[in-house]
Every structure is written in structure tokens, then in C-alpha cells.
Design brief:
The protein is α+β, with helices and mostly antiparallel strands.
């Protein structure tokens, strides 16, 4: 074995060791750095829990000035009128300074626990429903009003889906005073005041969230909790216009 060959092997071995050490160091440092940036961007307390999970190697993306794939989970985040939720965000690639760069393949979700879905009920029923709950993969909303000459609780089972960033609301069952009724019957009895939960609706929510967020799904769980999913624009942190409320083209549209 020649000296040159031995030196080459030695160099390769040293580089391999250095690369391994660098990988370990990056995997130890990056989560804490990302967590600190998340706290800063979201204006969270310095001791707020932020869980960061790196997927795949850390060294190669770092050479290109990025981090990822990455998954971030933040429990106890306040949204929708201070409702406590769990936020999760994933991305294929995030620049070291996400406030100035492009985030690739970003999406996120918020999980709203069953006891905290009140504001969501109000939003989806456009303020009509008194209460609501998740029941057998549908949203059941209720309204107490004068029917048949007495206070009567009417319940409507709603199927929820997302299409083009809008929430599609479809009533599938209506009950009042123990009777199954049609939407037209109840609408006639109530003078159209409950139309927002009795008729199929497409509800625009763009004006209730940053422009850089596009709603993609609503999932109802047997536990009564609700998960809302969305895609995030690549420049949502670097472009101030993406952080301003979105715009609905027309009422309900």
C-alpha cells in the first residue's frame, strides 16, 4: 500500500468522522434554534413548549442553507377567540432564516378539543346555533326557539368538507320536538331565520385567517375533537401581505 493511498484513506476516514460529528451537532442544535424562532414568530412565552422533529439528514440541507424535512408541534396555542388548540406544521425545506426566505412544501393543522369547539360552531352556523357537538362523524348543531307554541330544541346534522378553500356545509338530518322534518318545512315555520344551517352552503373563511393560509380539510373525530388542515404559502413568514387577513370575493364566496 503506497503512502499516497494510505493518506487518501486516512483523509476519507477523517472526513467521515467530521461529517458524523457535524451531523450529530446539527441534529442537537437545529431543534432548539427552530423552537426559538417559532416562539419569536408566534410571540409565545420563552418557556412555551415547542417540539421539533427533524426527518432525514441534517448536514446536507444545512450546506445549502436550509433545514428539513421538519415537523413542528406546539400545544396550547390560542386561536379562534382564545380557544386552546394544538398546532402542527410540516415542511420539506425551511431556510435558516424563514423570515427572509422561501418555505417549501409547508402545511399545517390545528386540533380543537371537544370542550373548545364553541367558536367553531358559531362560525360554521354563522351565529345561528346555540350549541353543537361532533356526533358520528357529523357536526350536530342545536337551536332552541318557539315552535308549535312552545320552546323547542331543533337539531341539525351537518356534513362538512372543504372545496377550493371554502367550507362546504351540507345538512343531512333535521329534528324538532322529536319529529324528522324537511329543510323547507322548518324554513317555512321559522321564516327563513335558520337558512344558514338548513340549506347547503359554501362558507368563505379567507377573511378570518392570513392570506397565506389555504384551508384544505376538516376532520371530525369520535372523541368530539376537530382538526382543521391548511396549506401554507412559501413566503408566509417573509411576505407581510401573506400575513394580513385574506379577502372573500363576495359574501359567502
Amino acid at each position: 500500500m503506497t503512502k499516497l493511498f494510505r493518506r487518501t484513506l486516512w483523509t476519507i476516514a477523517v472526513l467521515a468522522v467530521l461529517a458524523s460529528v457535524a451531523e450529530l451537532v446539527l441534529r442537537a442544535l437545529i431543534p432548539s434554534i427552530v423552537a426559538a424562532q417559532v416562539r419569536e414568530q408566534m410571540k409565545l412565552a420563552p418557556d412555551a413548549v415547542v417540539e421539533v422533529q427533524l426527518e432525514g439528514p441534517a448536514l446536507l440541507p444545512a450546506i445549502a442553507g436550509t433545514v428539513g424535512p421538519i415537523h413542528v408541534r406546539v400545544p396550547d396555542v390560542s386561536v379562534l377567540q382564545s380557544v386552546s388548540t394544538t398546532l402542527e406544521v410540516s415542511a420539506r425545506s425551511v431556510p435558516f432564516n424563514p423570515g427572509t426566505g422561501w418555505i417549501d412544501g409547508a402545511n399545517g393543522s390545528v386540533l380543537i378539543p371537544a370542550p373548545s369547539i364553541g367558536p367553531l360552531i358559531s362560525l360554521l352556523s354563522q351565529g345561528v346555533a346555540d350549541s353543537g357537538k361532533v356526533s358520528e362523524n357529523v357536526l350536530e348543531v342545536s337551536k332552541t326557539m318557539q315552535l308549535f307554541g312552545q320552546d323547542t330544541t331543533m337539531s341539525v346534522e351537518l356534513s362538512l368538507s372543504v372545496d377550493g378553500g371554502k367550507v362546504r356545509i351540507e345538512p343531512i338530518a333535521i329534528q324538532a320536538a322529536g319529529f324528522d322534518l324537511t329543510a323547507s318545512q322548518v324554513n317555512e315555520m321559522t321564516g327563513g331565520t335558520l337558512e344558514s344551517i338548513l340549506m347547503p352552503q359554501e362558507l368563505c373563511v379567507r377573511d378570518r385567517m392570513p392570506a397565506g393560509i389555504t384551508l384544505t380539510g376538516i376532520q371530525l373525530y369520535p372523541s368530539g375533537s376537530v382538526r382543521i388542515s391548511a396549506d401554507l404559502a412559501g413566503d408566509i413568514l417573509s411576505n407581510p401581505s401573506q400575513q394580513k387577513p385574506g379577502v372573500c370575493d363576495a359574501p359567502g364566496g
